[in-house]
Amino acid sequence: MSLVERPLRPTIAQIREVCQPPAITGRRNSEHWVADVYLRDISPYLTRLLLRTSITANQVTWLMIATGASAAFALLIPGLPGGILAALLGQMQMLWDCSDGEVARWRQTSSPAGVFLDRVGHYTAEGLIPIALGLRAAGFPNAGWLDSPWPLMGALLAVLVLYNKALNDMVHVSRAYNDLPRLTEKAEVAAPRSSGLRSVRSIARFVPFHRAYHSVELTLLALVASVVDVAAGDLIATRVLVAGLLAFGVVTVIGHLASILSSSRLR
After folding, report:
1. C-beta of residue 49 within 8 angstroms of C-beta of residue 208
2. Angle, CA 26 vertex, CA 21 and CA 27 arms, to 5°
3. Which residue, among 255, 237, 127, 137, has the nearest Cα to 198 in the 3D structure?
4. Are 112 and 101 in contact (CB under 8 A)?
5. Please, how many CA atoms are within 13 Å of residue 116, restricted to the half-sphere of its CB?
6. What is the pLDDT tens value at each position of the chain, 267 positions in all?
7. Alpha carbon distance 263, 267 (integer Å)
8. Which residues contact 148 (CB under 8 A, 6 or more apart)?
9. What's the whole-model pTM score?
10. Quick check: 90 and 218 in contact, CB under 8 A?
């Protein structure tokens, strides 16, 4: 369907046809599991509403950025309310993330600025949420939180999460600097050449702790921890979560770096 043939008030079926082609919904790494499970079923309804306004795709992305940051700040609300609100905002962030691309594809306004803003949104949320988790584990805003080690642990976790995300972008930058073609999302491209690393990678598929560092997973884990905290009457679950994420974060970064260097992604 060409741009001139696209109605100002498209149907849901038309939005799905144009904005959710197999090239988008079938992406191996770029499509989050919540999009596969249900958000791509919901997003056309939000996209249809957005297309009836003058809002641009990049402005929708700004809403995604603000929502992701708000999910982190919600974790500073003590108790279960903060955990619930953060989890809901984490889902809403991903819904905006689906719709901004759909608006861009319908209006054919995709641009490098849109991709850049998308990265800003994910880096912002996934950098702030670990910091907020550390503050939450310290009992913020109650007295004594500054004397706790948990804010520092949250900050270190944020560094690991952002570094792990940056490794993927470093691959694309390195290829661009060497005039190599854009990477495909085929499994064999990312597969390590070392049999040992391939075995470790296979194990990780069964225990995918490395996937816990996305804003959706982080906010859902924070919600589960807040439920346990309320039941236990203290912050034990949130503190175990921060400590566990920090320990596994080190393993994840080392494994990710080794996987990239031993795969075909830099060749």
Report:
1. no
2. 110
3. 255
4. no
5. 3
6. 655 578 878 999 999 999 998 877 766 666 678 888 899 999 999 999 999 999 999 999 999 999 999 999 999 999 999 999 999 999 999 999 999 999 999 999 999 999 999 999 999 999 999 999 999 999 998 878 888 999 999 999 999 999 999 999 999 999 999 989 988 766 556 666 666 655 655 555 655 667 889 999 999 999 999 999 999 999 999 999 999 999 999 999 998 999 899 888 888
7. 8
8. 137, 138, 139
9. 0.88
10. yes
- Which residues are CB-contacts of 236 (< 8 A; sequence separation ≥ 6)? 228, 229
Structural contact between residues 18 and 105, judged by C-beta atoms closer than 8 angstroms? yes
The span from the CA of 162 to the CA of 132, in Å, is 15
Residue 224 near residue 75 (C-beta atoms within 8 A): no
The two structure tokens encoding residue 82: 């903060």
CA distances for 68 relative to 100, 122, 167, angstroms: 14, 7, 21
- Residues, the chain, total? 267
Structure-block tokens of residue 145: 């939180």
Prior bond of 141 cis (ω within 30°): yes
